[in-house]
Design goal:
The complex is a heterotetramer, with one copy of chain A (495 residues), two copies of chain B (347 residues) and one copy of chain D (339 residues). Helix content of chain A is 33%, strand content 26%. With 495 residues, chain A is α/β, with parallel strands linked by helices. Chain A has two domains: 238 residues, P-loop containing nucleotide triphosphate hydrolases (Rossmann fold, 3-Layer(aba) Sandwich), CATH 3.40.50.300; 234 residues, P-loop containing nucleotide triphosphate hydrolases (Rossmann fold, 3-Layer(aba) Sandwich). Chain B has 347 residues and is mainly α. In chain B, 72% of the residues lie in helices and 3% in strands. Chain D contains twelve helices and eleven strands. In chain D, the strands form two sheets. Chain D has a six-stranded parallel beta sheet, with helices on both faces. A five-stranded parallel beta sheet of chain D has the order 7-6-8-9-10, sandwiched between helices. The chains are: A alpha/beta (495), B mainly alpha (347), D alpha/beta (339). At the B-C interface, α7, α12 and α14 of B face α7, α12 and α14 of C. The structure holds adenosine-5'-triphosphate (2 copies) and magnesium ion (2 copies). One adenosine-5'-triphosphate binds next to β2, α1 and α14 of chain A. One magnesium ion binds next to α9 of chain A.
Amino acid sequence: MKNNLILEMKGIQKAFPGVKVFDNFNFDLIKGEVHCICGENGAGKSTLIKMLSGAYLPDKGTIALDEEVILNNTPRLAMGKGIQTIYQEHNLYPLLNVVNNLFAGNEMTNGILLDSKGMIDKTLEILDFLHSEISPFDIVGDLGSGAQKTVEIARALIQKSKILILDEPTSSFSKKEIDFLLNIIKKLSKEGLSIIYISHHLDEVFVIADRVTVIRDGEKVNTYLIEDLDEHKLINDMVGRDVSSFYKRDEAEISDVFYKADNISGNGVTDVSLFVRKGELLGISGMVGSGRTELAELLFGVKEMNQGEIQINGKEVNIDTPLDAIANRMCFITEDRQSTGLFLDHSLVRNTVIASYAKSTSPFVLPSDDVKISEKYIRQMNVITPSVFQKAMYLSGGNQQKVVLAKWFATDCDLFIFDEPTRGIDVGAKEEIYKIMTELLRKGKSIIMISSDMPELIAMSDRVLVMRNGRIVVTIEKSEINEENILQHSIGGSE
Amino acid sequence: MSNENSEQIARQTRNSFFQKMIQHENATMFFVLVLIIVIVFFVDFFSSGMVLSKAKFLSGLNISNVMLQVAVTGIMALGITLVMLMGDIDLSIGWMMCFVGTTSAYLLRNFGWSGWMIILAGVVISVFFQLLMGFIISRTKLESFIISLGFMSIYRGFTYLVTNGREITLGGNFKFLGKTSIKLTPTFKLYTPVLIFIILAILLWLIMKYTKFGRRIYAVGGNEKAAFLSGINVMNFKLMVFGISGLFMAIASMTQLSRLGTGNPLMGQGKEIDVIAAVVVGGTALSGGKGNIWGTVIGVILLGIISNALNILGVNPHYQYIMKGLLIILSVLVGYYSSVRKNNVKS
Amino acid sequence: MSNENSEQIARQTRNSFFQKMIQHENATMFFVLVLIIVIVFFVDFFSSGMVLSKAKFLSGLNISNVMLQVAVTGIMALGITLVMLMGDIDLSIGWMMCFVGTTSAYLLRNFGWSGWMIILAGVVISVFFQLLMGFIISRTKLESFIISLGFMSIYRGFTYLVTNGREITLGGNFKFLGKTSIKLTPTFKLYTPVLIFIILAILLWLIMKYTKFGRRIYAVGGNEKAAFLSGINVMNFKLMVFGISGLFMAIASMTQLSRLGTGNPLMGQGKEIDVIAAVVVGGTALSGGKGNIWGTVIGVILLGIISNALNILGVNPHYQYIMKGLLIILSVLVGYYSSVRKNNVKS
Amino acid sequence: DDQMSGSGSEEMKTVGFINAGPDDYYAQFGDAFKAIAGLYGMKVIEVNSDYNPDKELANVQDMIAKDVDAIAVITAAAAGSAASISAAQEAGVPIFFIAGKPELDSGTDLTGHVTDNFVMMGYMVGQWVAENYPDAVCVNMPGFLGQGPAEGEIVGFQMALTEAGMGEATILQSGEWQRTIAIPVAQDLIASGRDFDVIFAANEESAFGIIDVFEELGVEGKVVVSNNGKDDAWPYLIDGSIAATVPNPPSLNADLCIQQMLRYFNGEDFIQYLQIKPPFVLTADNLDQAIPWTVSDYLNKREANEFMWKLSDYEKNYLENKDQFAMFDQKVADYLASN
Ligand SMILES: Nc1ncnc2c1ncn2[C@@H]1O[C@H](COP(=O)(O)OP(=O)(O)OP(=O)(O)O)[C@@H](O)[C@H]1O
Ligand SMILES: Nc1ncnc2c1ncn2[C@@H]1O[C@H](COP(=O)(O)OP(=O)(O)OP(=O)(O)O)[C@@H](O)[C@H]1O
Ligand SMILES: [Mg+2]
Ligand SMILES: [Mg+2]
């Protein structure tokens, strides 16, 4: 067994100011296996892999690769030793094109000169391999979240490696892309690559894992062979209580139409009509790149509408900016929390209260009120943080997502537009969020939810719209909502 | 776990006053300031043959001096702090002061306008031009560096046109803003400019703390896109901030004018560098979203004291430049190392 | 799918030369430059009573002049472009030139060092100090604005110490870098500084295009954290860039020294603003990651031509400041509007 | 320049006037130059170098390209002017210098030069102090460090004190020729409790700042001396707040330079290197000898012949005092060498 280990972490200790993440943590990776790490938000998964990748140094403990201890790990060192990492949050160069993103730091050269052609060819090759439509010359900042993740995967795969680490790679993918990625991962592991895979989608875990390590509060609960594990047990280990992975929501009373858009176009969206009623959750589905985010941006006044008309409560309104939208009691939870949701350098207090300022016209605020509001919602969302004065950048990915949700729940809107609301959120917390959403619907609020998480979409939606190429191709009523139906319409007749 | 968590959150909020002081983001720079004062005091004391009455650095007279010297820079720095919190910069303020100051002097001299009227004129001109600049910057998102550099050159030309390069004296008028003072002890005077600076600093601090405006400025500087999506009309907000900064520039210009008693065409030349340096030393990031009013006040006083101390200690002017440069670098380095100790992260 | 894709790429690559030109990121500023040249030419032509021989703006003599005038600024701007692409700034370069230039003059004058030896000395001094500054900035991540401001003051002090405030003439020595020229037509001369500038620009362009270094500078400037995680040793990279910038500063200082024939203590004073302005006008973002060498070359020439044209047209110096400010603002505005037309986004 | 001498004085001459910087002295210089040139039917194109040697050179080149009939330069960086001079020479454009004394490359020469001697100005104030306050402790607030005039004054002043056996004058931080910058330096001087009796301010702008501070802080009994002698300072001389100054009216400098140019255009002889007659110390007692800076006053008094303004008079005066000038220059060189 021992010589089978490609990687071994022993006695790992790691703390941040105010947070002790690991006390005495051990972990190992067998050659050629897919090892999944599961745990609640803030359990320490990302911290663990960042110590492997060299982004962080452990305070204590050893990391051994092929029985050789790595000292003073840095990303450069780790990459040199064949560890490739895809981080949970984007780590890209938004101003550069795809080729330059893929090879930054690992450029191909002929002598001292760059081998541009070689790099472009290799880019094309890897994009082909990933069945991606991205062009090598696209500026990465212009790509959507999903495409950006694809670029990061391509970047990791393009280098020769022994260990591949993926931290929630699928959170902005839809079903089709996820299946495709999982296939690739399986194939690579069969070819001898060792893989660490982190995901909150437990079904993915059961598809690809050879072993699973569960972390809770920085402690290893256990490492299982996949055969010895079922979903029930896994969740119980993670959360410490019983949670059903299939949430069943309570019904809410659906009444009048609250928001109605007629034949709107612009921002890559063509001729879309939709409405959502009070107490109704309208799901929007589609493949990555189908234009769902673009539609949401249009509804919220982020981007310019070329034509069409919007009515709220039966009255025509102009929504030219997010400010107008908020004044009309709408809110928009964007899919990219770091670039459009959070003020990373600011405290949770500032992050949670900023949008609610638009609610009242008084120019004054009381800092103590801000703290109270913030504490209320931070607590309600169960964000793991030493205090509400912690900077958002020091939270775990899932907890950051919860802060974004908290910001908008604090505004007490009537229409919530969610774009991938539960990205990176653990099963236990998801249930809490669904409960809050149900509560909102009960109070007569409306929700438009864009989601690539099929079970979530099916469990929560009253109706589902399916988008393709910037158009709505079908409306699926409650009784007909099921996975095959949605998928079939998303992909369209062509495949 | 959720219980534990909320308890922990509550605990942090109940921190003692002293702990809060130490953890405060201005604590380090304040400490550096105190350190410099103490060191200079001792150097002064020992070099005066250890006769306390001969050590002048902490004399009432010198303290009132330093405060008077930093007041105008301080008022400008308050305004620029807002602009920089938003992630913008303004290089035009020095020559704007020249332009506004000399124009007001011109109006007083040639049309006999009263003090209040020229103050009004100064405010109108400053705010108008800052709004114009703010309009361009907020609408185009072009680098405020280069736009404000353009305005700087324009103000310079305006100043020369108004003055033809010569001073416009006020003939002993318009003294109340700059030359009046309250005598607190026989040697310690509180000059009106200092009073204005203190009042504006407190006012701005209250605004930053207790108004939406104050909170939003951090949001705009911290993440413009997120701010836009959180319902802030970023363009108009920026416009407003430039307007407010214009108000501060007007007050600073009028105070400077009154102090000098003459509309000197070079009365503000080069001030932009002093002002921005003070704001940066005070902890405001050029990239925006980080910093605060007291930091700026500390930065202004720190740089003011460095200049003053070198003069008081009678350092040769050639060495003064070297010492000043070293002290600026050392101050921010000390600030850096103590903040690193507080939260040691690698990248 | 993949077929389509590669076809598209092929199409992109097969774009006509003209299309490429128009879409090039420097196209707009280049257009603005040409526009200004054309306008100035016509104004000059008409104000010279439509006698072509009296219109001096496009005379061989004036063109060689302008090129000579921008050469030193241009060399500095090339170096600073690297620093700014990385997201840093350097305010110390003007006084660094004073320090390095006068020190070299001192060595020549007092120790009889030869031209090549003082060039070596200049390079060693510049690179050493830039590395020192780069060391502090790269290790602490403090604002380069304030650190370089500190160095600026230090260099100023050093300059005064070396010169005691007086010029150090070269006594007619060391002319080859600044005063030699190749006569291409009876009136048009290519001066050595211009040649150096052109060679360096081409060299740097090639480096930016064909080496790892060139690619990585955009990565570091575009996202420092990602660069670190991609295995780039950001600290040492930054250090190196500052070192390289020191090399450019040395070449600029030596050229300036040779051109002036004297180590004037103010020989580079204020240059930092000209240089940074040119780089920004040329499209390099202060926040880093965006810009290129030809943009800088265009920016340098554009600002140089504005000054020259106003002199040639005999505009009163007071109005010159106004015109210059307006032209800077207008240039970047035109640049902005044409880029907006190309990809019209709202926020 | 063959074409030029042919067409002579009928055609309107265009002169490029390169001003050194943006302060009051230079502003008045520019005004005077344009007004007086206008008297003689010359057209002036003024440009400004912002004290920057590099920009000065560029300005000269631009004027050459502009093909003006002559160039007049006030230089802030005399030694660096060699490059400007050879450029003009090469292009065949006559070039005149005012105020600063340029160094030359071999084989090049100026067309004409009129100058005050800043070292001598500082020296004369120093002598005046030594005579009137032989036991005084002196301090000196210099002009912009690194500029020729500023450094010249420092040297001259100290030379006089040393000759008189007085102690060194402490050099304060620079007032950069400006009231605004001089004020805090003066405040710190008073606050530091430094013992001094006489303060030499490099120019009257900075002296004004010093006087403001003295007034504000109730400082009495200190003697302020300066350089410039400009009209604005006359009231201060009368009320004694400035005890003495050495005048260097820009109006006169401009006038003499233009007269040199006229002679040149007319093909007449003139002294190529003219030092303006030994400067004198201006006090309340001899204010009637002061030459106004303000153009209108200057022109009025000039018309009334109330002071000496003709080039020929100054040339005569110079020739009479030539040895004295040479001796002084030698003295300065010796002094500098010994320091
Ligand atoms: N740079 C940091 N500074 C301070 N605290 C940090 C930092 N990085 C992580 N933490 C804290 O460490 C803990 C573990 O975070 P980590 O990101 O490893 O969680 P995670 O398991 O990846 O969670 P998620 O599922 O939400 O991504 C969290 O409490 C987080 O707040
Ligand atoms: N795989 C891809 N290949 C090429 N372009 C892509 C790809 N994925 C996304 N894009 C581009 O990026 C844009 C936004 O992508 P994003 O991943 O955000 O999807 P979206 O349109 O927002 O819809 P969704 O919400 O379904 O992801 C798309 O409109 C498309 O132009
Ligand atoms: Mg994580
Ligand atoms: Mg999307």
